Amino acid sequence: MLAPWKNEKGETEYLGRGNVGVCTTNIPRIAIESKGDLEKFWALFEERFNLAAEVVHWRYKRLITLKAKEAPFTYIDGVCGMSLDPEDTVEKVYANGRGSLSLGTIGMHEACVHMLGEESAYSEEAVKFTEQMLLRVNDVCEQWSKKTGLGFSQYGAPSEALTDRFSTLDRAEFGDIKGVTDKGFYVNSFHVNTEAQITPFEKIDIESRFQKLSKGGHVGFVEVNNLSGNLEAYEAIVRYAHDKGCMY
Hints:
This protein has 248 residues and is mainly alpha-helical. The chain is built from nine helices and three strands. Helix 5 crosses helix 6.
């Protein structure tokens, strides 16, 4: 999913748009380094996400030097929604907010555990703290969008490898911290703890509140038994997610 964007005719455009790249920030490390001090947590939070914004902005400036002929299928043959001349740079494909410069997130669950001793599966306080983190990332995106005229957005994030990597690095540096570094993985983005004993509908109830704040992309999932013989149950879950405003 990409954030809404209107072309020069005022029409909302999705097809042919793309993501310049994502830089994902290790939120559990921010919580660990803040040592439970909320004021320090938010100061580090803003500092790290601004650094991530600098990284994706650098990546954007590097990407737009590419000429269309270097990736003709994408930029000349129309995959990106426009057909450029071979010697054109690809800047117009991503400029003015058409492309997404994404700030990724990981480990909001662990941050809640470390800062509050609570988790979003069972605690409204943790849900609200997660919402606050999502809003703070959006603030950074908005500031950078205004400063650069580009489409900074929050992406809840393609972190298949980082769930292990960040956890491993933090465990090596800080040791075992209960519910944070001692599991061998971090929970992706804003997701409810994957080990929480709740129903698919309860998980959707919680994460639907978060999805709308992750404006540059997100994914939701639930774990169920084999439903191949019970398609009505499968449909009920999909329809419930749809009616809760879940996008993907």
